[in-house]
Target: Histidine phosphatase family protein
Amino acid sequence: MATRLFIARHGKTMFNTVGRAQGWSDTPLTEEGERGIRELGRGLREAEIEFQSAYTSDLGRTILTLDIILEEMKRPRLPHTRDKRIREWCFGSMDGGYDVDLFHGILPRIFNRSHKELSYKEMANGIYEADTAGWAETWEQLSGRIINGFTSIAQQIEAGGGGDVLIVSHGMTIGTFLSLIDPNYEKTTYIANGSVTQVTFDDGKFTVDTIGDLSYREKGAELIAQETH
Model:
């Protein structure tokens, strides 16, 4: 049986809403964010995917997201594990600051280029250089923990006979993972809150199936609307 990773981005949070860099800092899901994840959970239930287990990062926004998904899927007892390797980037002393200051100010000044033109490696090195607190990770540390985290999860599922696993992680972490397993990946598809990126693991190799898929959320929203009228 193939091993498939369904990687959801957590629901929209307070910092997401006001445009603050939310790395290792954490804020709760907003009412809109919780609603979007209820839609996702309902859509996944309708799709009848038989998840073997679930994983989140160790940050509260992913844990709450999974709780809501499992409630909507009516699978509260699905085994789930927290793995800090799939947590978000650390923005160091800029964590919690405004996105515009980091991505449109600090990084462009370091490289004299728009942040959209920068690779993940360049962005990580820029953040590491600009961090005055000494908290940010080097690219080697960051990329190493992310690829190790997702690979370890995939290997565990494969060793148990394969199947589907649900993972809740973070926008830049998911994008970094995609860039590490697919050299042709470009940061063109926005990984929205509540979207699902699907990856297949077979014979030690990852294949990207879909990126930032919102169809589960859209179907769930449609079903919830029908059920409440």
Remarks:
- The chain has one domain: 3-88+140-227.
- DSSP finds eight helices and six strands in the chain.
